[in-house]
Amino acid sequence: MKIQQQIKLSSYRSKDFIRDYQKLVKETVIPYQYSVLNDMAPGAEKSHVVKNFENAAGVLRGEGAGDGFYGQVFQDSDAAKWIEAAAYSLISFPDKGLEEMCDGLIDKIADAQDTDGYLNTYFTIKDKEKRFTNLYEAHELYCAGHMMEAACAYYEATGKDKLLNVMIKNAEHIYKVFILDGHEGFPGHPEVELALLRMYQLTGNKHCLELAKHFIDVRGADPDYYNKETKSRSWTVWGNNPADNVYQQSDVPVRMMKDAKGHAVRAVYLYTAMAQLCSETDDKELFEACKRLFKSIKDKQMYITGGIGSTSIGEAFSVDYDLPGDTAYSETCASVGLMFFASRMLENEVSSEYADVMEKAFYNTVLAGMALDGKSFFYVNPLEVVPGISGVSQTHKHIITQRPGWYACACCPPNAARLISSFGKYAYGENENTAFCHMFASGEVNFKNGVSLVCETNYPYDFKIRYKINRGGELAVRIPGWSRSYELKVNGVVLSDEPKSGYLFFKVKEGDDVTLTLDDTPRLVYPSTSIPSLTGKVCLMRGPLVYCFEGVDNDGDVLSVALKRDGEMRVSRLDDGALKGVDKITVGAVRKRDGGSLYSDVPPEETEITAVAVPYYIWGNRGENQMRVWMDEIR
Amino acid sequence: MKIQQQIKLSSYRSKDFIRDYQKLVKETVIPYQYSVLNDMAPGAEKSHVVKNFENAAGVLRGEGAGDGFYGQVFQDSDAAKWIEAAAYSLISFPDKGLEEMCDGLIDKIADAQDTDGYLNTYFTIKDKEKRFTNLYEAHELYCAGHMMEAACAYYEATGKDKLLNVMIKNAEHIYKVFILDGHEGFPGHPEVELALLRMYQLTGNKHCLELAKHFIDVRGADPDYYNKETKSRSWTVWGNNPADNVYQQSDVPVRMMKDAKGHAVRAVYLYTAMAQLCSETDDKELFEACKRLFKSIKDKQMYITGGIGSTSIGEAFSVDYDLPGDTAYSETCASVGLMFFASRMLENEVSSEYADVMEKAFYNTVLAGMALDGKSFFYVNPLEVVPGISGVSQTHKHIITQRPGWYACACCPPNAARLISSFGKYAYGENENTAFCHMFASGEVNFKNGVSLVCETNYPYDFKIRYKINRGGELAVRIPGWSRSYELKVNGVVLSDEPKSGYLFFKVKEGDDVTLTLDDTPRLVYPSTSIPSLTGKVCLMRGPLVYCFEGVDNDGDVLSVALKRDGEMRVSRLDDGALKGVDKITVGAVRKRDGGSLYSDVPPEETEITAVAVPYYIWGNRGENQMRVWMDEIR
After folding, report:
1. Are residues A541 and A612 in the same domain?
2. What pTM does this model have?
3. Range of B472's domain?
């Protein structure tokens, strides 16, 4: 049974930092993506997403396929992710026009559903006979999953159930195929599992639960399944090698999994569903597997930025301690998925380590994925960039030094958008008795359990968090693992209780004034000596924010800068320019100057300097330049 | 005109360190490779090299192809490299049996030559019509080049000219095809150019000079040539992409080349031939290109070990300052080729920087290529190995932690063998007036110009080099760039002359006793701050030797060791075990112990230790363990 769960979307009304980001998504990302979906964005590559739905509807009506299908096999999911982000956005920013756009698109989606419940434009337009014959590559269930998530979100946001009914019908169709008719296989790209569990949670439809459990249980039971599937048909999408069963997490049954492996986004989407299933079924063996996988990520395979999937080869987890900064893959979507996983782990076990990871992933990698103007996006989030090598060297081709605009394969931008727009669900949780504050997000929260509060803070640039209690009950406030000290006062009186599993539990009543003060001093963080690429390095952090050093603030060269272990650190607020409102940190450092040779037995000369750091998530917003998270240290 | 040139093979009789290595090649590498070529080596993959020649002869006699062709398209070159190494070996170690083996193999090679002079078993056995239609991939001219080198070496070693005549006839055939008949194109893998120039040097055959110059001149004149060639035929060997004209150095004409680029072995073989051609033709423009390319390597793209070609993707040069230690490719063959290039540069311009590079490449990467027992070999020479990541992580798959036995693609072992066996040619040079001592190699040298000397030294473990003069003349002794001090005495009297271009020139007479004393203190070497992967690191060297730290000497973990800048360094000779005769160095250091977390704001605890380093070239001879060249530094 769930120990706590995400709050309802509508329970939280954001303010300040988070609201500014949500506004950016609402005003820039969502309208731009809508124009992309409709092929109206000047300069953008053709998307054809809406056209695909129209053409599929034409096929079903017997009118023909129009100009056919265009795009990737998973093109439908772009529409789904857009609806989901738009739904979340409608809660914070009601907008009739946007709601009408959603309704219009949903009508087209509904028209593209076959009478038996099947819904996928690629197969409907191209070849009905190929349905469910290429689970390995064709993203058929993945697209269904995203549409189910969109359906849930749109229902929660607007109360409108047209899309939800479409997707319940679709789920029943999939149930019939895989459960009643016994069709073999499981999704090549996990997603439908977590989506079915969301539908179950929202509607109580038991088939959704059963189907999700089925897909999770059969995964990896036959490690050779995709090989067999591939041999049984005459077509492929990309011709990927189905023998690599680690890539798509089918090398062992999920309950036997030990280390996080394979394609990072697929992995965390699967683990998310596994954690959800535990909380619905009290499956202890499955939960032990989830804990092992979470630990494998957090203790051995996660960047300091909350990035995961360190290798570009297969966009995948590598091996323990292989966390190079300069060739990091660290996909934005993978950190979004890591937040999903951590949030669902909290349903099984309240422990601040899950929220610590959510917070780290959000404030560093997820936010870094989007430019400050909301118009360009990183998929790949390196921890070091050196123009001339990054993006140029064969091993660094994937390291792009500047955020590009919308991609044809638009996974990360809408994923970041839906996460930001639904931030409240991750920040707050609840159960019958307790209101959980996992992350610090200003705004108003009305918990279903009766507690109501207003949080005021300029977090992550202010480390005083104030809760004004409008209706009382029990609060559980997380004490972040990174905070070396804290003080929580209720109406001015210090709470002396010890945290349990990283949370302070205490009762409040209407009118109470709760103030949490966290450590606001910048700190140097050291990597494990087991990480070969990071020995001797140090990283500057403050609160949950990883800081980085960019050339633009440091005379164009950060490679030659070494931070002094006991160097003076000063925090100051920037009050104009692109980074307005951001705290920069200056640190005592030295700059090394070599004599110009590649190697020399004369140590580089050193000059004392003050190095300037800015939060990692805003890097690359001021032109192409060097950037480094892990700096050399000097005493 | 040549300023100096390599001594004749027979001028040098080695002793001590070099002779020990030559003996290992003679007693272990050459017999083993002979058994491989003849498919008599137990456990080794089938080579079929000798069989290919027999079968090609059968085809030419009209008797059929026997069991056909087997192996790589460049399989013939294995025979050539073996003969070349055996020839050099015969000079130092006369051996009737070995000479008979060579003669027997040469007879088979001669039988496989077509009446028109053509010689290549792949095309003779498989399809005569395809001759010279796939210069891009098929290594046809590459194989010819290696056989020409073998022919020169065997003639110089034994005075026997059968193979030389075969290869002159072969060169005349190629001359007819490409010069007289105007066949288009140039070798995909450079090699024949440098070989033709060796044949010209040995025989004075002008067609060889003209043909070499032709291949060098037409290269890159049409950057699209290989694309066109590929389109003009219906077959490929591996289906490589001919559009990548940087890979095989055909993006620009050679005289316009600026940076060393593409496949590293191909590059340095080409540059070697370019440098040879300069010295035969006084082509100033070409020499300027050679100087630029050498500088590009030495100043921007060379590992401290003299390794080149930093990326495994294309076994290629990367971009300036991209010199990661843990994913280095640094192929043994590339360092052999770099020695060829540097040696030929010395024919155009006497400057110690060329010999400095030769020495660095030889004592570190070339020697590291072979195990101390001569039975296993590295192709790839990383500067850091961490079991668990090296060879396992997707980006580190090519990093093998232990030298494997003979490979199917046997390029590096015989390349190292021929280099070691002919070391004297690189160590000593001469012109009409002067005897050049480029490297320090004990043994007797009888220069053509009359000078005769005996060099005594235990270099690279002793830094006193003594020359006993048997016949006088002018000596030019290199003062290595790495030596922070030196003293040269003639009969006990210090020579006060300043070096010119890094060489001390002075006259000696019979009976003179010359002693050069170089700096024998270990030193810490710092990388340029422009190398992102090496900032904050330091490398321990002594003389030309790069030292490394292995787990076996350092409690199994070198990642957590940081060297103290002013730590005490002690040199001591190992007197038993696998490394007998090797100087190890101990250095004051600290060992860091983290608290077990992946990241922590508590710096690791530090304990004073004495770290142990051994020469890089002997790493991996005592089992699998961590190895690191670039260490963290602490003050």
Report:
1. yes
2. 0.96
3. 428-518
